[in-house]
Specification:
heterodimer, A: 627 residues, Alpha-Beta Plaits, eight-stranded mixed beta sheet, B: 330 residues, little secondary structure, rod-shaped
């Protein structure tokens, strides 16, 4: 242990699990009773330091009311954090609140850099910010940590979604960890969720339903089906699904389909397009059974008249805001590309013709985007799926982030309880406002179907629209398309080295197979003996499914950090390897047209993709299939 | 000039480091995009994972330099000395490597897509797994040819490359992909092409004597007038391949798929073709003296004027075949 510290003090970098503790309300307590608070913090920090050493951690410095600690194991770090809270709570047991201090703990995996006087590094900053998201007596850990430890420890975790931390560029997905299971579940009176302004009893019924559905044996399938009905796109990746809260999805669905019978129709419509109809019929029944009590109650207590007046008001202000955002986008040097992305969200196809793009009235397009993606996470999800299939991914990722940031004020202004109710009205209003300026004839269907969201009388139109929407985003194309043969990997290698440095790709794959590359001469000689071809073959063996590959590579890329240029390399590799993985039998949700329902296993006609191929920014998938 | 001075100067906007002596300099991971290092002496320099796109290294000395993972896309390395350099996993897309001396260089898994390698010396270089698609290795005249003698090209991606007249004698091309490649007049004597992919490749007039093509894929490969004497072609898949006028004496061709292939006027003296499939093959005027065709399938093959009087034909299927005298076998 001592050796590690001394080697660190020479200004070296070290990848470690970083922990920061913090006493809740320390300054306030100091101002009230300085002497006692100092005595308490001294006692607590000594205890924390002792426990940390028991778990093999190393205290780097004290912040006055907390400690900065690092561990060489994520599992140790999390077990230690839980043990700290347990012992601290024991100490406080039965005492008056002014006789003890509560602590928050944040943990993240990252590089630490020890300079002469101080400890630095982006990882330390992130940990410090994460700590503020922990509940008193709880932990907040980044997803990187959570993914590493979840298999080894029994945790009571609540996913917080990607957190936008101050001064940290990229969002950090994180989890809250609690000692007891009760802490994580929203109790019937749980009013911590600020977006919830619904009457308590209705909320309690929903909470019951959510709890029953998420502990159901088919909980993942339930989530998939609910998500598919909501987003009109099939998603199998548990990581993506994780980012959507079942409760929020159900609330949005109820907004769209106010009666249980409507919901039933929609669920069944999705199920007929699936290959495992029997299982999913069961799943449908389970969902309907659990939701019945909740649908029995009215959602809103205010009379209808008041509600519509209220939403009408929002529409107007939303229009103004859309105008502001549109101005901001139009002044961006990438104005045209931003339009392309928004156009793709709203209409599905990739439009490259500048004259047609510039004809579009941007504020209306933005408003339409809002109705397609009523929540920030919807927007992020849709942008993510589009960007994934573009060849200039890096550039468009930056632009997608620009859009997310630009849309923030729009989402913030939406009244929390009624986001989707307003979205419907917006869509209707938008349909009218767009009619004269929009391209004539054929596209009319999309407007009418947007309004039909409100009622079930035109369900066919609705699904057709979303079918085309999800189409270029990959569901059908990707999974219906031919799989590649693993016996010859020349094409795969070519695809990888076109977008990633060959050596970095090898280092990443090697790290995935044999543990993080340490740049030692031993590591180098091992790497020199393996070809990229060997490493790819071994990776196929090591990662039996695509999901497995995706998560393993992104975790190891995270561990290698900046030095490995991991993120971009990992995505280039996963993107290229995807076509070599067998089609998931659970996947094919064809575009939900009436035709699709009849023949769900038919691959997509290539024509839809071909119209995209002739132009510059074409989706990578299409490019490959034509090669 | 040391690394710090050089990087500071570059940060100030200086680009010209022409002819500087930078022996053994450590610039690992450095960003020197577009710098002028013409005629610089960088022997033994460490440039691992450095960003060197469009850097001008013309006539620079990079012998024994460490350039692993370096990004050298569109760099000018013409007439540079890269003898024994480490270019493992380097990216050299579209780089100018004309007349570069890359003797014994390590180019394992390097990306040489579209690189210009005319007159480059790659003798003894390790190009295992390297990608040379669209690279230019064309021989302009006798004195201006890419030298690949003794190079390792195992698993290399050479699809569509022009290797006409290249000297590839005794080169290891096992598992390499040469589909659509042009190798006219190339010297592949004694080369190892085991398991190589040669679909639609052009190997006319090539010397492949004593080479090993075992289990190679020669589907629709063109080999007219090539010399395959003593070559090992066992278990090749050569459907529709063209061996017209090839010299194949003593070649091993057991268990091959040679359906629809053409052997007109070829010399197949003492060739082993046991258990091979030759359905609908064209064998007009082919010389099959003492060839062994035991258990071969020659149904619907055309053997007009072929010399088969001393051929071993035990258990051969000749259904519908046109025999040397013009009759159809019953």
């Amino acid at each position: 242990m001592e050796r590690r510290v001394s080697s660190l003090s020479q200004g070296q970098r070290l990848l470690a699990a970083i922990m920061i503790t913090d006493a809740v309300g320390f300054s306030t307590r100091m101002s009230v009773d300085e002497e006692r608070t100092l005595r308490l913090i001294d006692r607590d920090l000594t205890l924390i330091g002792d426990i940390c050493r028991e778990f093999g951690g190393t205290v780097l410095k004290s912040t006055g009311d907390g400690l900065l600690i690092y561990f060489l194991s994520a599992v140790e770090a999390v077990s230690c954090g839980l043990e700290m809270q347990r012992r601290l709570i024991e100490l406080a047991d039965g005492l008056e609140p002014e006789q003890y201090l509560d602590h928050r703990i944040g943990i993240h995996l990252g590089d630490i850099l020890v300079s002469e006087q101080d400890v630095m590094g982006n990882g330390v900053n992130i940990t410090a910010r994460l700590q503020t998201y922990a509940k008193p007596r709880g932990l907040c850990v980044s997803r990187t940590i959570y993914d590493v430890v979840k298999a080894r420890l029994t945790l009571h975790a609540t996913f917080l979604g990607p957190l936008y931390l101050k001064n940290i560029e990229e969002p950090v997905p994180a989890y809250q960890l609690a000692l007891q299971a009760e802490d994580t579940e929203p109790g019937p009176h749980g009013s911590e969720d600020h977006t919830c302004t619904l009457p308590m009893t209705t909320e309690a019924l929903l909470a019951n339903a959510v709890r029953a559905l998420s502990t159901h044996t088919h909980s993942l399938r339930i989530k998939k089906l609910v998500f598919a009905t909501y987003q009109q796109a099939w998603e199998n990746d548990p990581k993506v699904l994780e980012q959507f809260d079942l409760r929020v999805l159900l609330l949005s669905l109820r907004d769209r389909y106010p009666a249980l019978a409507d919901l039933e129709v929609q669920l069944k419509r999705v199920v007929v397009g699936l290959n495992r109809q029997d299982i999913y019929s069961e799943v449908t029944d389970a969902i309907l059974k659990q939701l019945q009590p909740w649908y029995g109650r009215s959602l809103f207590q205010n009379p209808d008249g008041a509600e519509s007046g209220f939403t009408q008001l929002t529409v107007r202000s939303v229009e103004d805001q859309c105008q502001a955002v549109a101005d901001q986008f139009d002044h961006s040097p990438d104005a045209l590309r931003l339009r392309k992305l928004l156009h793709c969200i709203c209409y599905g196809g990739w439009e490259n013709d500048p004259s047609r793009l510039n004809q579009i009235y941007l504020p209306a397009l933005i408003q339409q985007t809002l109705s397609v993606a009523p929540k920030p996470q919807d927007l992020r999800y849709r942008l993510g799926r589009i960007v994934k299939h573009l060849n200039r991914r890096q550039q468009y990722t930056r632009l997608a982030n620009q859009i997310v940031v630009g849309f923030q004020p729009l989402y913030q202004s939406q009244p929390g309880a009624l986001p989707d109710a307003t979205a419907l009205v917006e869509a209707t209003a938008l349909a009218e406002s767009l009619e004269p300026s929009g391209p004539s004839g054929g596209s009319e269907g999309s407007y009418t179907t947007l309004t039909s969201l409100a009622g079930p009388e035109q369900p066919a139109d609705l699904t057709t629209l979303h079918g085309t929407l999800s189409h270029p985003l990959g569901t059908g194309h990707e999974h219906g398309g031919p799989r590649r043969d693993r016996s010859s990997l020349f094409d795969l290698r070519g695809d990888i080295i076109q977008y990633a440095n060959p050596l970095r790709a090898k280092i990443l794959l090697y790290s995935c197979l044999h543990g993080p590359f340490g740049y030692t001469s031993q590591d180098w000689s091992n790497l020199n003996r393996r070809t990229l071809n060997d490493l790819l073959e071994q990776t196929f063996e090591y990662c039996p499914t695509y999901t497995d590959l995706d998560s393993k590579l992104s975790i190891i890329a995270h561990c290698l950090g900046r030095a490995g240029d991991g993120g971009q390399v990992a995505s280039a590799i996963t993107q290229a390897m995807r076509a070599y993985y067998p089609q998931d039998p659970n996947v094919p949700l064809e575009p939900l047209s009436p035709m699709g329902a009849d023949a769900p296993s038919q691959p997509h006609p290539p024509a839809a993709g071909r119209e995209l191929t002739s132009l510059g920014d074409r989706p990578a998938m299409v490019a490959r299939s034509s090669a | 000039m040391n690394a710090r001075e050089l990087l500071d100067a570059y940060a100030r906007g200086e680009m010209d480091f022409k002819g500087k002596t930078l022996v053994g300099i450590d610039l690992a991971g450095a960003d020197l995009i577009g710098a002028n290092l013409v005629q610089a002496d960088l022997e033994n320099a460490n440039l691992m994972l450095a960003f060197l796109t469009r850097v001008r290294f013309r006539q620079a000395n990079l012998s024994k330099a460490r350039l692993g993972g370096a990004n050298l896309n569109q760099a000018d390395l013409s007439a540079a000395m890269l003898r024994d350099a480490d270019l493992h996993g380097a990216s050299l897309q579209g780089a100018d490597l004309r007349s570069a001396d890359m003797t014994l260089a390590d180019l394992l898994d390097a990306n040489l897509t579209g690189a210009d390698l005319r007159n480059a010396d790659l003798s003894g270089a390790n190009l295992t797994g390297a990608c040379l698609r669209g690279a230019n290795l064309r021989q302009e005249n006798r004195k201006y040819a890419t030298n690949l003698r003794g190079a390792k090209l195992h698993l290399a991606d050479l699809r569509g490359t022009n290797l006409s007249g290249a000297d590839l004698a005794y080169v290891d091309l096992s598992g390499a992909n040469l589909s659509e490649a042009v190798l006219r007049d190339a010297n592949l004597k004694g080369a190892n092409l085991q398991g190589a992919l040669l679909r639609n490749a052009n190997l006319s007039d090539v010397d492949l004597s004593q080479s090993c093509l075992e289990s190679a894929d020669l589907t629709h490969c063109r080999l007219p007038r090539s010399n395959l004497s003593g070559a090992n072609l066992n278990r090749t898949s050569a459907k529709g391949a063209d061996f017209t006028e090839a010299v194949m004496a003593l070649a091993q061709m057991d268990d091959c798929n040679l359906a629809d292939s053409r052997f007109s006027r070829a010399d197949l003296a003492r060739v082993n073709l046991r258990r091979s499939v030759l359905t609908k093959a064209l064998l007009v005027e082919t010389y099959l003296g003492r060839a062994d065709l035991t258990d071969a399938n020659l149904s619907e093959a055309i053997l007009e004027r072929a010399e088969i009087s001393s051929t071993t034909l035990a258990n051969v299927v000749l259904t519908g075949a046109t025999m040397p005298d013009g009759t159809i076998h019953g």
